[in-house]
Write a structure and sequence with these properties.
The complex is a heterodimer of chains A (519) and B (267). With 519 residues, chain A is α+β, with helices and mostly antiparallel strands. Chain A folds into four domains: 17-101 and 138-250, Alpha-Beta Plaits; 256-351, Alpha-Beta Plaits, CATH 3.30.70; 354-456, nitrate reductase domain like (nitrate reductase domain fold, Orthogonal Bundle), CATH 1.10.3650; 464-510, no CATH class. Chain A has helices spanning 21-30, 59-62, 81-86, 97-100, 108-113, 149-152, 189-193, 220-224, 246-250, 256-260, 278-282, 290-297, 304-312, 317-324, 327-334, 358-366, 374-383, 385-395, 400-422, 430-433, 438-450, 453-456, 465-478; strands at residues 3-12, 43-47, 66-68, 74-76, 104-106, 125-127, 176-180, 199-202, 208-210, 230-233, 238-241, 266-274, 298-299, 339-340, 351-354. In chain A, the strands form six sheets. Chain A has a five-stranded mixed sheet, sandwiched between helices. In chain A, strand 8 (199-202) and strand 9 (208-210) form a beta hairpin. The two termini of chain A are 39 Å apart. Helices cover 65% and strands 1% of the residues of chain B. The termini of chain B are far apart. Chain B has a single domain, classed as Transmembrane di-heme cytochromes, Chain C (Fumarate Reductase Cytochrome B subunit, Up-down Bundle), CATH 1.20.950.20. By secondary structure, chain B is an all-alpha fold. Bound molecules: protoporphyrin IX containing FE and iron/sulfur cluster (SF4) (2 copies). One iron/sulfur cluster (SF4) is lined by residues 16-22, 44, 177, 179, 261-263, 265 of chain A.
Chain lengths: 519, 267
């Protein structure tokens, strides 16, 4: 056993209202620069829909992620290393800017400069790539709320095999939002695809990053990621990707998308996992077993054996503690309501989703039943074959049984809460029928419905004591009087002459981090 | 092949050179090439140390893929063939190929045919790439002046390189650049460039050689640096790379540690 830690996220899709606040705040922080106009590290898709970039989920078209070769060994879907090196001059699997949406802005100046009395001066749309007039054709959110879905919706790869049954009568169709960021996979195919070795996974927290100095612009990571969450900056000629807001995570703060999420549906925490098991899990023969295989890679932080191994492998004690309080571990492993997105890509993604029950419940209400009556919900879950199978294509490589189990559990949780709140009679066997105890379901309800800031985000700050020591030395380069106890210390206050300050590992505890109930 | 044969030939051509070299010729064929070589070496060291962030192929495939699909591979494979041809034709002395029994006529035919194939590839490729740079607005928008300079120089080198290969060798009476241009070029590296050979070569060879040393001077400052980063290491490194967060010295005050360029600054 080799214990490693990975920060991870769970999103509760039931609560996403598709407001795009996460997208906008992320964009403002990370991709508000020339060359990244078309880039959304966080984007929110309406499902069913073809997504951003178009049909990214169809790996027969884009060849992202991993597959197994004839001998059952893990292999990049886009082909071997030699093949990459030979096709380096033109990457056959790279999406073009039109697949993402040609970025545009408006010629506001015309409006501003319009002489007095000009009737309705119009701001033309101009291409952010060329500055020339353009007709807007596609963008990352062009399918919002199923807009245009009668034309594009049926091309959603997750509808494969369901087309005949989905007539796409969009007034009645099942719809939900899918916010997406980089999955910070345990077995990242983007990293494996980078010929320069410029991409890496951080050993401490599993965040996957691109070294901007080492990237040579061979653009294989972009096509290698099955979720298409590495982007090419067309101005700098370098790849960029979601950073999991690592500067915030290091300070114990949640990512920007989580912090600003209107639905408060994102959970952040640690997984401890057994690094020795990763490759075997990713090479699980049957794609439908990948979900269980990944669960099996995760380690139980309450297991004394795991704790001992974690200490041996250099996991700091407060990280182990954080892993024990991890909301993502609770949701994914203890309650088993969170599922990985497209496990069949074999990257072992680390952003998991609680499948949405609401659209199902809506259908129940629409048919005149009590949406909180678990029997009715269960019956509908069975009857609504399309959404279940659709969800299965998203989260379990097509295994509808797992989805059904999760939705049943969520329905039972709601029913129990409703019964207790309204003093209705409660079937005592209900919790047992979904493989849980009433206490379990109560905990789940608390975590999903009323968890506060420091329960939703359990992020241990990075250990940077060594950095602090170096920083202290560096300070001396400027003013030898500023050393501890030196004459320069007097009247210096908390911040030093160069904004560096007398920084010490103890000092960071005064940072406003988790632990405050801000929401 | 023995060292004394070498020096005999050198002495002979040096004598010939001494008779007919002017100051301008020395400047053009010795001084400037050495300046370009110096810029090439120092420029690369400088760029490597100070501009890792700018060291990239600056791919434009995102903006345009149909033309690139043909242009880029054809151009690059053609270039590699041409570079290989130069290694054979210019860097390897004629005596060596004679010594292993390759007759002059055979060599000439091989060079003409292989050279023509490489030339057709390369010129097809570079024309597609240049047209793409000029006429596809999205690509043009990301093009910096140095890109044009590099492409134009490549175009000159290629055209002037092909014309003699195809025309003179194949149809004309043949001009043996291996005893004139090549010794000059080799001499640049061995420290005794023979000016007479190049100074009296046909103009087209002179243009070719000039554009070649100009491009050395431009190379480190253009995207051409990407050629040195061919990621051969990929063949045997582990797939997934892990890195540990290392404690790092903070950056100098005032720079903000910026490796990224400022927002809004043109590239
Ligand atoms: C040694 C290995 C080399 C590799 C792996 C390589 C790879 C590449 C790649 C990936 C691109 C970007 C294509 C795109 O737009 O997506 C490119 C462009 C380019 N390469 Fe290379 N290259 C190599 C050597 C060379 C050499 C030796 C030359 C010239 C002497 C050269 C000249 C160029 C030029 C001029 C472009 C720009 C093409 C354009 O106008 O779009 N390359 N190369
Ligand atoms: S989701 Fe993120 S970590 Fe996984 S392959 Fe894509 S870019 Fe890499
Ligand atoms: S901010 Fe939250 S609720 Fe709004 S779209 Fe993003 S994930 Fe959904």
């Amino acid at each position: 056993m080799r214990v490693m830690a990975n920060v991870a996220m769970v999103m509760n899709l039931d609560k996403c209202i598709g407001c795009h606040t996460c997208t906008v705040t992320c964009k403002q922080v990370w991709t508000n620069r020339p060359g990244t106009e078309y880039v959304y590290f966080n984007n929110v898709e309406t499902k069913p829909g073809i997504g951003y970039p178009k049909r990214y989920e169809d790996q027969e078209q884009w060849h992202g992620g991993w597959t197994l070769d004839r001998k059952g060994r893990l292999q990049l879907k886009a082909g071997g290393r030699l093949r990459k090196l030979l096709s380096i001059f033109y990457n056959p699997d790279l999406p073009s800017i039109d697949d993402y949406g040609d970025p545009w802005t408006y010629d506001y100046q015309t409006v501003l400069d319009a002489p007095l009395g000009t009737p309705n001066p119009a701001a033309h749309s101009i291409s952010a790539l060329t500055g020339k007039d353009m007709n807007i054709g596609w963008g990352s959110n062009f399918e919002d709320d199923l807009a245009g879905a009668p034309e594009t919706g049926l091309r959603d790869p997750n509808l494969a095999g369901l087309e005949e049954r989905v007539k796409m009568e969009f007034e009645q169709v099942f719809m939900f939002y899918l916010p997406r960021i980089c999955e910070h996979c345990l077995n990242p195919s983007c990293v494996a695809s980078c010929p320069s070795g410029a991409m890496y996974k951080r050993a401490e927290d599993g965040i996957v990053l691109v070294d901007q100095d080492k990237c040579r612009g061979w653009r294989f990571c972009v096509s290698g990621c099955p979720y298409k969450k590495v982007y090419f900056n067309h101005r700098t000629g370098k790849a960029e990707k979601c950073t999991f807001c690592f500067p915030r995570i290091e300070a114990g703060q949640p990512t920007v998308c989580s912090e600003t999420c209107v639905g408060r549906l994102r959970y952040l925490g640690l997984f401890l996992y057994d690094a020795d098991k990763v490759l075997a899990a990713a090479a699980t023969p049957d794609v439908q077993d990948l979900y269980e295989a990944q669960l099996d890679v995760f380690l139980d932080p309450n297991d004394p054996e795991v704790a001992a191994a974690a200490e041996r492998d250099g996991i700091p004690y407060n990280w182990l503690e954080a892993a024990r309080r991890s909301p993502v571990y609770e949701l994914a492993v203890r309650h088993r309501v969170a599922l990985p997105l497209h496990p069949e890509y074999r990257t072992l993604p680390m952003v998991w989703y609680i499948p949405p029950l609401s659209p199902v419940a809506d259908v129940v209400s629409a048919t005149g039943y009590d949406a909180d009556d678990p029997d009715a919900v269960f019956a509908t879950i069975e009857a609504l074959r399309i959404p279940i199978e659709y969800l299965a294509n998203l989260f379990t490589a097509g295994d509808s049984e797992v989805i059904r189990t999760v939705l049943r559990k969520l329905a039972a949780m709601r029913a129990i809460q409703r019964a207790t709140q309204l003093g209705l009679p409660l079937d005592a066997r209900l919790a047992g029928s979904v493989g849980a105890t009433t206490d379990d379901l109560d905990d789940l309800y608390r975590l999903l419905a009323i968890a506060k800031y420091d329960q939703r985000y359990v992020i241990p700050p990075a250990h940077a004591e060594e950095a602090g020591r170096l920083m202290g030395q560096h300070e001396q380069l400027f003013c030898s009087l500023d050393t501890d106890g030196g004459p320069g210390m007097g009247g210096m206050g908390p911040t030093g002459p160069h904004g560096i300050g007398s920084w010490s590992p103890e000092g960071r505890r005064t940072l406003p981090v988790v632990g405050q109930d801000r929401h | 092949m023995s060292p004394c044969v070498w020096s005999l030939i050198d002495a002979r051509s040096e004598a010939r050179a001494a008779m007919s070299t002017t100051g301008a010729q020395i400047f053009w064929w010795v001084v400037l090439p050495y300046v370009a070589l110096g810029v090439f070496v120092v420029g690369h060291i400088w760029r490597w140390r100070y501009d890792q962030f700018g060291w990239t192929s600056r791919s434009t495939q995102l903006q345009e893929r149909r033309l690139l699909k043909w242009g880029a591979p054809i151009f690059h494979y053609g270039t590699f063939a041409a570079i290989g041809g130069h290694v054979i034709g210019v860097l390897i002395p004629e005596r060596w190929t004679r010594a292993i029994g390759i007759p002059e006529a055979g060599y000439r035919w091989f060079s003409a045919i292989a050279g023509t194939i490489a030339a057709v590839l390369i010129i097809g490729g570079v024309v597609v790439l240049a047209l793409r740079r000029l006429f596809v607005p999205r690509v043009r928008a990301t093009t910096s002046p140095i890109d044009y300079v590099a492409l134009i120089l490549l175009l000159i080198i290629i055209l002037t390189g092909i014309a003699p290969t195809v025309g003179v060798n194949l149809f004309g009476h043949g001009y043996d650049y291996r005893t004139t241009v090549a010794p000059w070029f080799r001499g640049l590296f061995s420290g005794s460039p023979q000016i007479a050979g190049i100074a009296h070569a046909p103009f087209i060879y002179q243009l070719h050689a000039t554009a070649a040393w100009v491009i050395w001077g431009v190379w480190p400052f253009s995207r051409l640096v990407h050629a040195w980063s061919y990621p051969l290491w990929y063949l045997w490194r582990p797939y997934v790379v892990f890195r540990s967060r290392v404690a790092q010295r903070p950056t100098e005050p005032g720079t903000g540690g910026r490796k990224w360029r400022k927002i809004g600054v043109p590239y």
